Amino acid sequence: MERKRAVCTVCDIACQLQVEVEDDKVLRVLPPENPVTAGNYCLKGLSAHRLYALEERLRQPLRRVGERGEGRFEPVSWDEAMGEIAERLEVLIEKYGPETFAVSTSNWNTSVENGLGRRVMNLLGSPNWTSGVAMCMGNTAAVNKLTYGWFPWPDLINTDLVVLFGHNPRKHSWTPIYNLVRQAQAKGAKLIVLDPRVSGQAARADVHLQLRSGTDAAMCLGWLNVIIEEELYDKQFVRDWCVGFDDLKERAAEYPLSRVRELTGVAEEEIRLAARMYATARSATIPWSPTVDQQVSSTSIIRLQSILRAICGHLDVPGGELIYGFNEEMLSETFIELHEALSPQQRAKQLGYDEYPAYTHRAGELLAPHTKRVFGHEYANIVMGSYMANPTSLFRAMATDEPYPVRAFFSLGNNTLMSYPNQQQVKAALLRQELLVVHELFMTPTARLADFILPGDTWLERPHVHDSFGWRSWLIASEKAVDPPAGCRGVFDFWRDLGHRMGLGDHLPWASVEEMLDFRLQPLGISYREFCATHDMKIAAKEYRSYRRTGFGTPSGKVELRSSILEDLGFDPLPYHRELPEDPDHPFRVFVGVREDPYFQTGQRQLPSARRLSPLPAFFLHPEDADELGLAQGDWAEVSTRHGCIQGVIERRGDMSRRHVRVPHGWWFPELIDSDTDGAADRHNDGILVPDDRESLDYEQGTPQLKGFPGAVRRLERPPAHIARTGLRSSEEVTAQ
Ligand SMILES: Nc1nc2c(c(=O)[nH]1)N[C@H]1C(S)=C(S)[C@@H](COP(=O)(O)OP(=O)(O)OC[C@H]3O[C@@H](n4cnc5c(=O)[nH]c(N)nc54)[C@H](O)[C@@H]3O)O[C@H]1N2
Ligand SMILES: Nc1nc2c(c(=O)[nH]1)N[C@H]1C(S)=C(S)[C@@H](COP(=O)(O)OP(=O)(O)OC[C@H]3O[C@@H](n4cnc5c(=O)[nH]c(N)nc54)[C@H](O)[C@@H]3O)O[C@H]1N2
Ligand code: SF4
Ligand SMILES: [Mo]
């Protein structure tokens, strides 16, 4: 029996767990050995080996034989599959141009493929790469760059104040952040939580701003108003290092607290108290959260967070938010990705480039010389979130040929059908492909639509060094614990093989992930094996206030409170609040979120122990709202918007705000994959509810509103018929999260 250390990629927070191995089999996954990180594990990580050992796991490549979506496949060898994929891709590129080829990947994928996918796409000439990071952290990283050139990391270990925008890390959800917040509180840090619900974090907060879902931008503008009016900002920093303060002041004045109270539903005194606490704290952090990535005011909220950090003096100081720049010890994926290989003409064809440019190549081009001046390279892809195609523009092109045909689509470790707004359009887009390839562990609703399904490896089966998404200078060692099953191959091997078959061999000199890691670790002067033998983690020293030496990576070299890049792109250069108009037919504010402990996003529903813990999709309602609608605990109900409707069971919860409904993300039933369309994802997943027309998206990035959209709730007389086929007995099996 042997113990290895591997970085868990079940979710995207990278705990380094211990893995007990015997005879090339994983016996157990255990919490970390390192006392500093000992509490960083959750039930998904510890049960991962059981998920991967299930019979349902894909273990050989499959090729479609029936009609698309019919679900009939035949086994095929890797060589035959890859040969045919490369050949068909080449024909499509010849016919429509390289931009006809698009890719969507997952979030955990960050760094496990080492940037090879984007390299191959750039060399082929396609700009149409996107990912779930378009509404989870990647976009935040890209939008942060507009204000001060990089995406700063919250120094939670040393901070005096933490502000959580609806972020609710728990013992089994983003555990390392949960632990860091608790440790900070134990050392005396204060906690402010903005959340329409009394979440676990809100219950522990010093100040809980129970705002209406979808009004974070208004709240931040209220804070700014107080901070500027009461002159609580760092005057010297604003004078020396910021541009656009007077314009910002004018904008903030448009949001007096009486207006902010009306928009957010929070009392003026509470808003004032929180703003004062933030501005006067010795140090403060606003850790990232997806709540701000998923609103029509997303760009403004992210900018407002950036602005608050800067003018209150919390940028690049101990206990504040740290600008790391590239890690000097391991080559960033950016250097592998070769964005410079893509011609300006092809860059300009990126879907979303004109419509929603904030994280596309278009904003990247405006930042490039300044990124180079400060960080030494024109491209800086942090959390994979820069230089991306916009998903809505992409799926529209795939479904309609507008503005041009996109007919070859690869989904790599991403349940694409369920992971974007307007699931109806994503389905139409996938059905219309001439070549659809899915790299997966399981038969998902997306995989079922594919021409080829390729079985992947897992984090227990591949070598890896986690480089903190290129965000901060921390490296974490991850050893391969066991070999993948004979028919399974990693995403790195997929790209390498495809690239070679497409004539790019000269640009792909690394024969294995390990060779690639050796290459990326060259600055450190040791190989991957030496790294694992000598390090658990490696944390590079941090220089504070490095902008004093380099300036900021923006056109002005300063913090741009008024964004010259947004202005050049034709948008309001100052932050503002926008929300979806009220709709009397849909009187509730619906939000997606509150992740379920046993699942990561759309995954894990194959694992019986996970399903026992959380058997059915649940809608949370305040008991008084439930009473008004005649809804008892466990009743089946339908939530509808003007775009679609989904079904779930009612969970009456006193922690909800009145007139709000929570709907879960990611529900489908693997056991129904053959009998029901999309494994019933079309009747349970949130993407069915969420429109993506222009007014329903953030203007600058094109990000959807998952927080606070208008919806209606009604009781269903009985469980939907397909639920009987899941073997669940329904209502009484619902458990609280
Ligand atoms: N077990 C488990 N853990 C996970 C995941 C998982 O799937 N399962 N997913 C991981 C991933 S990828 C992510 S992105 C994170 C997300 O996890 P969190 O950051 O915790 O985000 P959410 O679950 O989306 O919602 C959290 C809170 O936002 C509140 N909220 C709703 N609307 C608003 C609003 O408009 N403004 C504000 N300020 N708050 C609002 C909700 O009431 C809820 O309490 O969780 C990670 N952790
Ligand atoms: N409608 C809607 N869309 C959303 C969200 C939402 O709330 N609503 N949330 C957004 C957020 S916060 C995030 S983080 C993203 C998440 O989007 P994704 O990162 O795509 O997350 P999953 O839904 O877990 O899909 C991952 C798929 O990869 C497979 N998989 C897991 N590990 C491996 C592996 O090692 N190799 C391979 N080949 N496959 C693997 C799993 O079986 C699963 O089917 O979705 C975003 N999209
Ligand atoms: S929080 Fe859980 S799922 Fe996420 S990396 Fe850590 S152990 Fe894995
Ligand atoms: Mo996420």
Bound molecules: ligand MGD, iron/sulfur cluster, molybdenum atom
Which geometry do the CA atoms define? globular
CATH class descriptor name of the largest domain? Alpha Beta
Biggest β-sheet: strands ordered side by side in the sheet: 5-4-16-15-14-6-7
What would you report as the Rg, rounded to the nearest angstrom? 24 Å
Content of β-strand:
15-25%
CATH architecture of the largest domain: 3-Layer(aba) Sandwich
The third-level CATH topology of the largest domain is Rossmann fold
Helix content: 25-40%
Structure description:
With 737 residues, the chain is an alpha/beta fold. The protein has four domains: 2-52, ADC-like domains (N-terminal domain of TfIIb, Single Sheet); 62-139 and 325-539, Rossmann fold (3-Layer(aba) Sandwich), CATH 3.40.50.740; 153-322 and 544-568, Dimethylsulfoxide Reductase, domain 2; 588-736, Barwin-like endoglucanases. Helix content is 31%, strand content 16%. The protein has 27 helices and 26 strands. It has a seven-stranded mixed β-sheet, with helices on one face. Strands 21-25-22-24-23-26 form a six-stranded mixed β-barrel. Helix 18 links the parallel strand 14 (408-412) and strand 15 (435-440). Helix 3 (78-96) crosses helix 19 (491-501), helix 5 packs across helix 13 and helix 8 (216-229) runs parallel beside helix 13 (298-311). The radius of gyration is 24 Å and the shape is globular. The two termini are 36 Å apart. Residues 107, 136, 290 line the site of molybdenum atom (MO).
